[in-house]
Amino acid sequence: MFVKTKILKREKQIYIHIGLPKTGTTTIQKSLYQNQDIFLKNNILIPDIGKSHMNTGSTVHHNLYWELTGNRNFRKNLGTWDDLIKKINISNNEKIIITSELFFSLPQREINKIKNYFFDYSVHIIVYLRRQDLFFQSIWSQLIKAGYRDDYYLDFHDWLEDRMLSKQSDFDVILEKWSKVFGTKSIIVRILEKSQIEGTLFNDFLTACDIQYKADYVISRDANISPGIKTLVLIQEIKKRLKCTSNTNARQRLYSSLRRYGEKRGWDNEKANLIDMEMYKKITERYREGNQRVAHKYFNRNQLFLDTFKEKEITTFYLKDFKSEELFDMFGLFAQRFLNERESNQKLENSEADYESIMKQLVPIQASLWWKILNKFRLINKKR
User: Fold this and answer.
1) For 197-252, what is each residue's pLDDT tens digit?
2) 235-239, long-range: CB < 8 A, 24+ apart
C-alpha cells in the first residue's frame, strides 16, 4: 500500500512559474484565476494556499516566496508550504500550477528547499525571458509607477548603467541556479517574442504546462501595461517632491490613481522609448555570451532572441511640456475625491465605479466659464 501511494504521488506534475517579471506574468495569473473551475474539471489544481491575498482577482503565490525568504509580508493564515504539500497529497489532481514572479530571484539554498518539499513529485520550472532592452525599459517603468520605492526618479540611463553592472539580468545565471537543483530537462524556457510564442501569451503558457483543449479557457486581457511617457514623467516629478514623506500604502494609492487618470486621458497612447541603436548594441554586447549559452543549452541554436530591433525616435517629455489645463484638470479630480472622502469618511482606494463617477462629473478646466473669462483677460493684456 505504501509503494502504491508513492507511485500515485510521482504521477502528479508540479509546474512552478517563476517569472521573469515584466513578461506578462500578471496577465497569466489573472487568466489562471478566471479559469479555476475549468482547470478543476480538467483535473488541474490552481491552489488558493500561499496566495498573496485571499481575494485579488488573480492567482499569485507570493506568500510562499515570503515564507522561504523570511519576508515580513509573510502571513501564516494565507497558507504555508506545509499546508500546500498536505493539500497536494490528498488531492486527486494530476497537475498543480504555482506562480510567482518573485521566485526567479531565490538563492540556491531556497531553491533546494522547494525541491525537498516536492521530492515525491515530478517538477517543471517555467520561465519566460524577454529581450534585455525591452525588459529594462519595462522594469524601470514599473519602478517609477510603483509606490513602494520612491528613490527611482533617477535618469533612466543612470539607472541602466547601475543595473548592467549587476548579475540580476544575466539569464544564464538565473537559469543555472534552477537547473543545478532540478536538472536542465525540468526547465521550460519560453521566449516572449511574437515569433516564438504559440498564439496568445496564455495559450503559450498552457502549452508550456502541456495542457490540451486550449479553446475551453478564457483569456484575460493584457494586464499591468506600462504607462505612457506623460504619466511616468508626472509620477516621477511627484516622487521628487514627496520624498517618501507619506506611508507606502498611501503612495501606492496615489500613484495608482495617477495611472488611472493618465489612462482615461489617453496618456498611455504614447509609450516611452528610451533606447536607441547605440544603447541597444551596448546592451546586446553586455549579454551576448550569456544569451548564447542559454540558446545553446535550451534551444540548440546560436541566437536566443529572433525578433530584430526596430529603432524608434527617443521619447522626451518634461514637466514644462504639460499644458496648464491638464494639470488643473488632474488636481481638480483629486480635490473632488478628497472632498468626497472627507464627507463619506472613505479611503482613497474607493471603488472603480466611484472613480468613474467623479471622472464624469469633472468639467475640463478649459471648457469652464471662468477659464474662458481668464483667457479673454489674457488677450486684452496682450493687446495692451
Assistant:
1) 988 999 999 999 999 888 889 887 776 677 888 888 888 888 777 765 556 777 77
2) 235/144, 235/145, 235/259, 236/144, 236/153, 237/153, 237/319, 239/144, 239/150, 239/152, 239/153
